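Lay summary

Proteins are chains of building blocks that fold into shapes. Our project writes down both the chain and a compact code for its shape. Here are two examples, one after the other.
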Amino acid sequence: MLNIVSPASVGLDATQLNRIAPHLDRYVDEGKLPGYLVMVARHGKPAYLRAYGLCDVENQKPMAEDTIFRIYSMTKPITSVAIMQLYARGLFQLDTPVSRFIPAFKDLRVFVAGNAEKYETTAASRPVTFRDLLTHTAGFAYGTSANHVVDTLYRERKILSGTLEEMIQKLGELPLLFTPGTRWSYSAATDILGHLVELISGQSLDAYFAEEILGPLGMEDTAFYVPDAKAARFAANYTYHEGGMRLIDSPDNSPYRQPPTFRSGGGGLVSTLHDYFRFAQMLLNKGELDGVRILGRKSVELMTMNHMPNNGDLSSMGMPVFSETPYDGIGFGLGFSVMLNPAQAQILGSPGEYSWGGAASTAFWIDPVEEQIVIFLTQLMPSSTYPIRRALRVLTYGAIGT
């Protein structure tokens, strides 16, 4: 369990932090969220923690500090750390073509025109690199929208199903959205990185995570599935429905109760507040926690820099599809969104703050300037349903005094 210190001891205003509860509680009281868990930490110490509502409405289980959540795309930073560990061992360079390890990507082509039945392509002017995958500038899609023919092709081929090897084979046969490095589009790139972790390390993704990240950090409840011994702590998952919510995945018979055939580096993990706080604090500490080093300081610094061309924001990179971040004033690093300009983003924050979220409305951000970490956990899809994350940023940043 987390040891909560007084807000004043870490330069936070308790009165402002206490405004979080009435703002978020109303979503639960009005039947819009099942429940939530939120933590604000500064200088390495949690100073605010609130669990409210239920983690399983049908079984009337209260939200608790040790509830296990589907973190979906908050898996991506963990996968990005894994690939950067391998990078730090000199096993590839950021500009190394991915086809060196995945021959199916050697002759990728770019969509030009047409529809899902008949389309034209052209040869990519350069190969996809590791940096392209880490920054979502490789040209892959996700198949979760109807904005482009390539997305339709992804859905028809069921890209994110089967095994990682089957995903790679399908992707090698489909066109890219654009020439690598020229635009930004949220995509299956991190699932490809997960497969690369397996190819380069010689281990399955779950085994690599356990040995190199989760085990060393003491993240005991983070995994690709929930074993029977922990099932009582597993939350139910809901979707927005007619002004409220509807159950879409019960913890009693969830697919997450069994080891998956598709180990998704882009969105497959479950985790807890305690575990993800340890991961986030490791990053804030530039790669180290409690005497255990996961990454070198310079690796974390490189990951949390903006890698968009000419230090531009995501708006300057086009492809305005849904992702877990706003676009104006926000750049992208090697696995995270990166705050560039709070004034342009029209939100409280610090240049250099990095963050991401998950499809079930979970979110985290890390501010190295203020040494502050915020983690918000719930289970409601899609994450765009309510402006909770944006309001929570204002409420938590507004508490910073000294």
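And here is the second example, written the same way.
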Amino acid sequence: MAGGWTRDGAVQDQIDDSIADSVSHARARLPRGESAKDCAECGEPIPEGRRKALPGVRICVDCQSERDDTTPPAGFNRRGSKDSQLR
């Protein structure tokens, strides 16, 4: 049940849209094409299992882990917090 000026199901629509945006963003970041044999960042060989699992991969697991730790989360919160709406 929605409240105020919103229609029923509006909150679920926002949740669905947020999920769809996140999935689209993640798919866009997936590597494509032929995998590299050596890591583009550190030069170490990329294991064949990783190259088969992720076609188009260019970096090794260690370098990817470092990237993942420094990559900020994508998107934004459509709903916002009550706190931000009161300012």
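What can we say about the second shape? Helices lie at 10-28, 48-53, 61-70, 82-85.
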